[in-house]
Structures are given as C-alpha cells and as structure tokens.
Task: inverse folding
C-alpha cells in the first residue's frame, strides 16, 4: 500500500478500534503494527518488513499462514453451504469433524458439542458438568475448582475459574465462588525439563493440595478444570505428566469431573496430538479451539463422555435438555477448514515433523545458558520459555515497572521477530510448519536481541 | 449424495453430535434434517427437497445463501491474510469495518471492540460497563438490570441477565444477581401493530417499572440491557419505539448505561439499519453479531461511546486496561465478509427493498385473521409472528404438553417451509433478499399448514 494509505488506515485504527488486552495509551505515540500479508511462518507489514510469527498468532496457527489446501477447502465448502442453523438441522462438515475428533481424542469421549471460541467452549463444559450433577441426583455439586495461574477465557463463567489476578480480580462481584488450588511449582530445570527431584516434589505437593480439597469438599464440587501440561497465559508454566495423571486419579476417586482445557495446547503443540496423552488419561470433558481450525477462523468444541451425554437424554417433558447454543454453532466453513487441517496432519505427517522440530528446539536451549538473568529455561513440544529474573538462583523478579518483557518485544520487532512476552516471560509457541533452518534463524535473532539489551 | 452416504452421515450424527438447544431424544426415531446445499432463500436436503429458510438460519442470514460477492470477498481476503493476532497488530479489514460501523451506527458511538459471537459481545459490554464505573469513582455501581423474557446469550454472564426461565433457571447458583424489570405488555394488535391505547398503556406501565427501580437503586446499577424493539428468543415480543426512547431518557437521567443488544435485530431486520433508529436514540453500548457477517461466519462487535473508552485510557501503571480478548478477535476473513455485506447494503439498496417487502408482509397479515386460535398477530420489518392460543380474547395458552408449535414445525417441513416456533409462537424472520413472489408463496404454504392442522 502507499504511505498515504498506511497513514490513513493507522489514523482510523487509532480513531475507531479498541484492541484486546491492550492499554490503548501505549499506542498514543506508537502505531499498531499494520500487517498486510501473512504467508507460511511470516507476517509482512505495510512497509514490506518481514517478521517470524513465533507465537503462532496468539497460539492458533498450525500449518503456517495461507496454506493452499486450507484456501481450497473454504472455497469448496462455499459452493455447498455457507452457514445454516444447527438445531433441527445438520450437515456433512460438522458430522465428519465430530466423527474425526472422537477418533483422534483420548479414548472414552463420545460426543461433540460445538461453539465459537475457547471461552464459550469452557462455559459449555462448566454448564454441562453443573447440570449433569443436578440430573443424577447430586444437586449439591455446584462448585468448581481451578488452578492458581490458570486462564480459561474472558466470559464471566470462564473468568470465575481464572487464576490470573491481573485479568480477573476487577470483576470479582460478578463471578461465582470457586476453589483455587495450588499448581505444581517446579524449582529446577535441566535441558528444558524439570529435574527428577523438582518434578517429584512439585507434583507431590500439588496433588496433596487437590486431595485435601476433595477430602473436605468433593461433595460440593462438580468439576476441576485444568490446562493439562502447560498453563499458558499464566506464564507458560510446564507441568510434569505425573501431575495430570494424579489429578485424573483423584477426580475419579472423589467423583469430580476432570475438565481439560486444551484450547491452547491441543492439536500437536506439546508434541502429542492432545496434551492429555502425555499422561495417558482421558478427561470427562475436553475443550478444543485455536488450533482446531489450524488457526484460520473461530470454532470450538467441547467433547464429553457418553455418561455425561446420557444424563441429559430423556423425554422432553423431563426438562433435561441442555439449553445452550450460539447462532454459528457448527459453522460449515469452519468445520470444513478443521477437517482439512486434520487431513493435513495425516497426509503430511505433521506430528512426526513436530517431534523432529521439538527435539531441535530442545537442542537449541543451551544457547540461552550463557545469558545472565534467564531463569527456568523450559520446553515442551513446540513451546519453549524462560523468565527474565533479577536472580536466577532465588527467582527474584525485576520490578514490574521496568517492563522488561515489553522491551524485549519492541527490540525483537526490529530483528524481524514477533515475541509476545507474558510479563517478563519470553517464549516461543511455534507453528508446526517451522523448519530446522527457520528455528535456527529464530534463535539467532533472539540471542541478538538479548545481547543488545545487555543480558550477556 | 447416495442413500448409503446419507444413512452413514445420519448414523454418525446420532453417534457423535450433540446439537444445541436440543433434547436429543426427540431425534431417537427421527433424523436431523441433513442439508446438502444452501442457495438464496432455499436449503436443500440430502434427498433434494427444497425448503424456504424463513428464519434466516437462526436469524443470521441477510443476502441469501451462497451470494457470489461474499464468496469472492473471502477468496480475496485469503490471498492477503488469513488470521493474525489483534493485540499489538492490526489489519485493513478490521480497521475499515470499524470505521464503517461507526459511520452507520447511531451517532455518538466512537469505538469498536471485536469478539466472536453475541454472547461474548454481551460479556464485553457488561464488563466494560462494570469497569467503567470503577474507574470513574462510582465503585458501588456493580449490578445490572434486564427485562423479563430477555435473552442475551448462553455464557454465564449473559445468562445472568437472561429472563427466560426455561433456559436460565437451572444455572441460578452460578449467576450474578441482577434486577429483572417488567417488559412492555401489549394487549391488543391491529394490522400488525399495537393499537394506540395498548401501546400507550404498555409503555407507561413498563417505563414506570424502570423508573421505580432506578429511583431506589440506580446508585448500584451499572447498566440496563435491552433488546431494542423486539425481544426475540423470549417470544418475538415487539415493543413500541416510545418504550426504547423512554428507557434512554431514564438511563440518562439516572446515570445508568443503556446497553442495546442488537445481535438479532441489527442490520435491517426491523426495517431500519439498527433497531434503535426507530426511537431515534443512541445507546452507551451497542452489541452486534449475526447479520454483521450477513450470517456467513462468526463475528461480533461491541460499540461504545468515547466517554466509556476514555475512562480506560491511561498510563499502563494505573491498571485501567480492559483485559479481555479472544484469539480470533477481529478475524480478517470475517471482517472482510462483513465489509462486503455492508457494500451490498449500499450498492443493492437493500434497505429500500426491505421496506418494500416489509410493507408487503404487513399486507399479508389479514390472511391469518380467518384462522382460529391465532393471537397477537404482529409485525416489524422482516419479522412477523403470531401465537397459537386456546382463547385469543383472554390469551389463554394451550397446555404446553400439546407442543403445538412443534407440530407446526413438523408439518411445515412437509410443505417445504422452515418454521422454527418458539414454544407456541410461530414466526417469520425473513432474509432481506426475499422477493414479493417468494413472500406470497411462503404465506400460501403457511396457510396450508394451518389449514391441515385444523386451525381454520
């Protein structure tokens, strides 16, 4: 576009658009980055500058931008049905996608309920779990448990089970009461993984907290919601698989639904198709979005066991219907895209490639060791992170007013790299299509940024 | 598709899919209607049967299905950017759409915040209103008021301001407290409109209820949420414009945000671009979805005044950021579709056509007069409705166990007509592309259905 067009668009952006999760005054002097083209692993701004999309456009992109097969799938679907309602009516893309999701999901899940984004899919899971206990004669089970540092979305039900005070505390008077549980705390990392002692200690302590809660209160708890393996927005906190396995066991023993929010970690991001596979477990409810459509358009799904489904299945007059729905539920275009993405997973052996790149990413971690102030260097699958801390031994943080992560973000842009730190946590959340060569280039550039900011 | 394919798809549908707002046991013997093709005003099932989509696929479709211009807009956008994040980044379709929405919206709205569906856009409005009062030193304003019979979505915040007990009562323990206000009750209709006396009485009574509430409690009320002109899911309840105007006045006087949920009624459905125009008012927050993308894919927007926006605009350290966002916020594909739809509105003079068809629809209403048990025949724009009642004088309902609306639905399908009654309320919610000829055919078929079910 011309410089005049660019100026005009940025002017309108400032005049008319309120961006998500953004203090708009941060952009009083500076512009939002105007993206004109997205292709593969790259975004291009209006001046033709190229950036690595190392955060998969907010953790959604899978096969890279502009994949020709995805484009064709949309075009094909548009020839049949654009959007039709999904109550009383059904269509091929939604049916085939549901069938495929059940096929690839952890065994034991039977039904798929569609919605439009992670927040709504979380709300579906909470409401299903709540109503289930009403129907099976346990009406006292009306509460939920969640983990500190958890993030499950921004609608008020999802906020009620959110553990990041920065996002959630303001809305306290609008939230329902829920139990906040200690998450696994990992004190020491080696080669990107918790040391065995740190893992054991962190898991034991965190499971003990769950057990204590369930012993005293399982009678009133409908479900326990977790982000299996990685708490994402809370700071890319990687958990040992033993924790997820232990939670499953406790939920079963104390009759509490395990609700697995795999919105961020599903579809191969952690190295397995679903993060629950690391622990070899099946949740009672599984929540999917983001990567579901390869990151191209909104769609979400809440999967549940047949046992949960059957508690709602009765004559209409018994009033056990699950009265929930959104206009665009099961949108044919989004379902067609999701199906094509899953075909690509198979035909292009995406998970094999993910394993290769995950190993390569792990192999790059030692390059961060020589830097000062880099703590908790950790990795799982296509995800890697470290924290900028004053003291790596004690974990003492920098004063938040220094906004160190934010400065890394700004400097990285100059290096053609999109890093989107969470506070002072710097991370990669790589698309599956990343090549080894691109990975090396990304790490080179990251090191250059750290170097320039004085972390060597 | 072949009969075998159809059987297999319907088998998988029954095995794997949990449909929204559906008692799945209703489909134990009967299949969901498998739609294979959608074109213009018609849906075609797997056997090639054609149906009029008289409910615009759950109130979303605008220009008909499969509009070539919409298809082209998606294809064009896919060549530039599929999806990119919207925090720190921006792109042409989202900017141009925001600019256009502010241009056509009631005057005085300044900023656009995107999300994915009506529920999330309602949650955005509630959270913005709530946080606004925190920022301007009125922290006691933490509650919301809503109308009886209202429906604002299915996430728990939206359910908290929902007034349809069938959908909302189950979840009581998870909802925040809110004030339920009497809606206008219209006792008599003539030529599809309230009689002047009925309108005056209904409006006065309902405004008095708002006034009483505000007098006693405005100090603790952040916002009052309404569906302007038509309460849709609550039973296609049409309100006089004087009610909406009166609510605006009271909200201003008592310093309560007026939140207008135009998810269902926006974009021409009531005959004007936005329903608020009937009353000549501007709400503090305006919620849009459904018709925003011409009903093709998920997208929503919450518009607010600059005054609200400015209460959040400050140095980062003051912690006034609106921490809300969804991964697919401002999805470029959906924004491109919405822009193209608004271009069609202008170039094809859609609102002029809507006025013509609305008049023609009004002209058809007398055809329902000779039937027995048809009460409250009413109409606004492309929307018309009547209730099946035992006694049209007293309004006495049929026993709900008779499921009369449901029988109309089943019979109408045989007549090539998709009617989706709300309980015993039968209604049209016509796409803007409906022609006069199609309208007559739709009414002919509806009369045939009523005839066969013994209402003559």
Result:
């Amino acid at each position: 576009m011309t410089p005049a067009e660019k100026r005009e668009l940025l002017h309108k952006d400032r005049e008319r658009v309120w961006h998500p999760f953004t203090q708009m005054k941060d952009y009083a002097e500076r512009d939002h980055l105007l993206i004109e083209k997205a292709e593969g692993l790259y975004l291009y701004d209006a001046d033709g500058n190229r950036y690595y999309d190392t955060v998969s456009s907010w953790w959604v992109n899978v096969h890279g931008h502009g994949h020709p097969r995805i484009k064709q799938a949309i075009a094909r679907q548009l020839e049949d049905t654009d959007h039709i309602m999904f109550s009383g009516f059904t269509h091929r893309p939604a049916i085939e996608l549901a069938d495929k999701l059940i096929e690839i999901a952890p065994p034991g899940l039977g039904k798929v309920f569609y919605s439009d984004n992670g927040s709504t899919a979380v709300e579906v899971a909470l409401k299903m779990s709540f109503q289930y206990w009403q129907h099976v004669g346990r009406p006292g089970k009306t509460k939920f448990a969640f983990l500190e540092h958890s993030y499950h979305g921004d609608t008020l039900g999802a906020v009620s089970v959110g553990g990041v005070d920065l996002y959630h505390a303001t809305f306290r008077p609008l939230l329902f009461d829920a139990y906040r549980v200690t998450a696994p705390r990992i004190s020491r990392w080696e080669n990107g993984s918790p040391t065995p002692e740190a893992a054991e200690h962190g898991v034991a302590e965190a499971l003990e907290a769950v057990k204590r809660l369930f012993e005293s209160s399982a009678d009133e708890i409908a479900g326990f919601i977790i982000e299996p393996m990685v708490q994402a927005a809370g700071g890319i906190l990687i958990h040992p698989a033993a924790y997820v396995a232990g939670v499953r066991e406790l939920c079963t023993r104390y009759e509490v639904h395990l609700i697995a929010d795999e919105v961020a970690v599903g579809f191969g991001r952690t190295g397995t198709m679903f993060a629950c596979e690391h622990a070899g477990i099946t949740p009672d409810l599984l929540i999917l979005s983001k990567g579901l459509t390869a990151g191209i358009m909104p769609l979400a799904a809440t999967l549940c066991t047949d046992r949960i489904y059957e508690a709602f299945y009765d004559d209409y007059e018994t009033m056990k219907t699950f009265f929930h729905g959104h206009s665009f539920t099961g949108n044919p275009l989004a379902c067609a895209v999701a199906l094509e993405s899953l075909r690509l997973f198979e035909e292009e052996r995406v998970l094999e490639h993910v394993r290769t790149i995950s190993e390569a990413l792990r192999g790059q971690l030692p390059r961060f060791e020589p830097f000062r102030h880099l703590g908790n260097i950790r990795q799982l699958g296509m995800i890697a992170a470290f924290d900028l801390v004053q003291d790596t031994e004690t974990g003492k943080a920098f004063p938040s007013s220094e906004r160190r992560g934010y400065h890394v973000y700004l400097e990285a842009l100059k290096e053609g790299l999109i890093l989107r730190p969470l506070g002072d946590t710097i991370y990669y959340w790589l698309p599956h299509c990343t090549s080894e060569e691109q990975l090396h280039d990304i790490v080179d550039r990251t090191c250059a940024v750290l170097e320039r900011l004085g972390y060597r």
Observations:
- The first strand of chain B starts at residue 33 and ends at 39.
